[in-house]
Amino acid sequence: MSYTPIHFSEDDRIFQAQIRLFAEREVAPIADEIDHEDRFPDEVIPKFGDMGLLQWSVPEAYGGPEGSLTKLCIAREELARYSLSLSVMVGENGNGMALPLLFAGTEAQKQKYFPILAKGRTLVAFALSEPEAGSDAAALRTRAVRDGDDWLINGSKIFVTCGPVADYVLVLARTNDAPRAKGVSAFIVDTTLPGVTRGSKNKKMGYNGATPNCDFFFEDVRVSADAMVGGDGEGFTIAMKCMEFNRPAMSASAVGVAQGALDQAIAFAKGREQFGKAIAEFQGLQFMMADIAMQIEAARALLYEVTARYDLGDMDGYGGLSAMVKTLCSDAAMKATTDAVQILGGYGYMKEFPVERMMRDAKVTQIFEGTNQIQRMLIARELLK
Ligand SMILES: Cc1cc2nc3c(=O)[nH]c(=O)nc-3n(C[C@H](O)[C@H](O)[C@H](O)COP(=O)(O)OP(=O)(O)OC[C@H]3O[C@@H](n4cnc5c(N)ncnc54)[C@H](O)[C@@H]3O)c2cc1C
């Protein structure tokens, strides 16, 4: 059981029911397999694309669905009940291309790229992190220098989600001598360009299958001037704005994996007998389930409060709120999935049961898109303004 936020429109509820059915039919059957084999599910891409899920933020005027943040989160949550990695594919080209173009692209760039994304077959990655620049992303060293009308990019990036399968990658690079964030610009880079190479696929704890990761290396990669999104030195601000938008989406994936783990734990506890009765009858486990459910509902309530504000254009305090929601939801996901493993006992530790995968997957939601320590710093910054 889970509660639907009271302010969901009829349209939101219909969409939720459709995605729930799709998740049960298309995602649940492959969720374990793509994790265990670490297989990228190519067959899902056209299905997601035809439903507008990959290209979520592309405006209608350019052939996209121009979906609301609330619906994006509904889709993420429903899919993550079965597979966190597949849920992250919803709006996959957001941070990497659709959002930077939306926030800072020229009309010519929108005309060039949005129709490509709108087809729902293009995969995109977002490359900010570097070996020496993780939480301190503004310390990045990748450089782009002017060469006539073009830019030449040199440097490397790490941990890039969907890097191994991406057609384009948004590269944050230093373009002038202004300090830290002020010297960073954003470039859309075609991954087939000469000088772009990818490292081998990262071997990860979880978050496998639909979201392969790799490093990128750029050696004299030549891009034309119109590959830069926004002005010289504006890239970092654009990247942060995209991440701010994306935090609720990542949070929705966290709520989904938490709910999925609770569903699994309840079903198991009702069926498993010890001491002559179902383990669900033991108060010790009932209290655990109640605690998980409370944390999920609190996280979900804040999540959809924040998405409703965004969709209404109420951006007052949005940065702090989106940091709160990311932290609350991902901490709830880690706790819920860990406790779900506990409720299943030894079975929870076995790969035959999805809670084992869910616990490994949940961990990443506390780390990427800015760790939860960094989110707490952002929240405190708002409080102390
Ligand atoms: C699976 C996965 C996918 C990813 N996908 C992408 C991607 O697509 N694109 C991309 O650009 N990056 C990606 N990343 C990188 C991710 O954003 C970084 O890992 C994250 O920002 C943390 O940086 P770091 O790993 O260098 O850790 P560090 O910054 O070295 O942090 C190590 C620890 O120190 C803590 N810490 C650091 N600074 C502070 C501080 N000031 N106060 C308190 N604690 C602090 C951190 O919270 C953490 O616990 C991905 C990472 C993972 C694991």
3D structure, described in words:
The chain is an alpha+beta fold. It has three domains: 109 residues, Acyl-CoA dehydrogenase/oxidase, N-terminal domain (Butyryl-Coa Dehydrogenase, subunit A, domain 1); 110 residues, Butyryl-CoA Dehydrogenase, subunit A, domain 2; 147 residues, Butyryl-CoA Dehydrogenase, subunit A, domain 3 (Up-down Bundle). It is built from eleven helices and ten strands. The strands form three sheets. The protein has a four-stranded mixed β-sheet. A four-stranded antiparallel β-sheet has the order 2-3-7-6, with no helix packed on it. A two-stranded antiparallel sheet has the order 9-10. A hairpin with a 2-residue loop joins strand 2 and strand 3. The longest helix is centred in the middle third of the chain and has 37 residues. The protein starts with 9 loop residues before the first helix and ends with a helix. 49% of the residues are buried. The model has no long low-confidence stretch (mean pLDDT 96). Flavin-adenine dinucleotide binds next to strand 1, strand 3 and helix 11.
Structural class: alpha+beta
Give the uncertain stretches in residue-range form: none
CATH architecture term of the largest domain: Up-down Bundle
> Roughly how many Å is the radius of gyration?
21 Å
User: In one word, what is the shape?
Assistant: globular
> How many angstroms separate the termini?
40 Å
Q: Helix-strand pattern, N to C?
A: HHHHHHEEEEEEEEHEEHHHH
Question: What fold name stands as the CATH topology of the largest domain?
Answer: Butyryl-CoA Dehydrogenase, subunit A, domain 3
Average pLDDT over all residues: 96
Number of domains: 3
Number of H/I helices:
11
CATH class of the largest domain: Mainly Alpha
Q: How does the major sheet shape up?
A: 4 strands, mixed
Order of strands across the main sheet: 1-4-5-8
Helical amount: 40-55%
Q: Provide the CATH superfamily of the largest domain.
A: Butyryl-CoA Dehydrogenase, subunit A, domain 3
**How large is the share of residues in beta strands?**
5-15%
Give a count of the beta strands, DSSP E runs of length 2 or more. Answer: 10
Small-molecule binders here are: flavin-adenine dinucleotide
